């Protein structure tokens, strides 16, 4: 459903949120290893997320990526998806057809409409802090 960029972006944001909640800023290398994403690809995704104020970054020896706890309270998953994938997940055809609509539906059209609405509600009503609070610390299986 999500593009690879969006999947990695969601993973990265959750990981950064988790680490920020523990008081830690994280490097690009740590993030790309934790989310199992190529470093150059992760860098491009983080650049988009930083540009759109989803994550923060500080350069230098004590720098890294982080998200303020207050921001995690209001940052919902739909904001991340919107930055990385736009709104096509809510409007596109389930089979990827260009001509699919209510007047000329594909075989999955009306079933997919209900699924998209549920997905939209879930993304809009799930904050980053909810996920961070619900996660076990070893979900990303970091090497220690």
TrEMBL record:
A GO CC term assigned to this protein in UniProt: cytosol
GO molecular function: DNA-binding transcription factor activity
Pfam families to which the protein is assigned, alphabetical: Rrf2
InterPro entries: Tscrpt_reg_Rrf2, WH-like_DNA-bd_sf, WH_DNA-bd_sf
Superkingdom to which the source organism belongs: Bacteria
Matching PANTHER family: HTH-TYPE TRANSCRIPTIONAL REGULATOR YWGB-RELATED (PTHR33221:SF15), WINGED HELIX-TURN-HELIX TRANSCRIPTIONAL REGULATOR, RRF2 FAMILY (PTHR33221)
Official protein name in the record: Rrf2 family transcriptional regulator
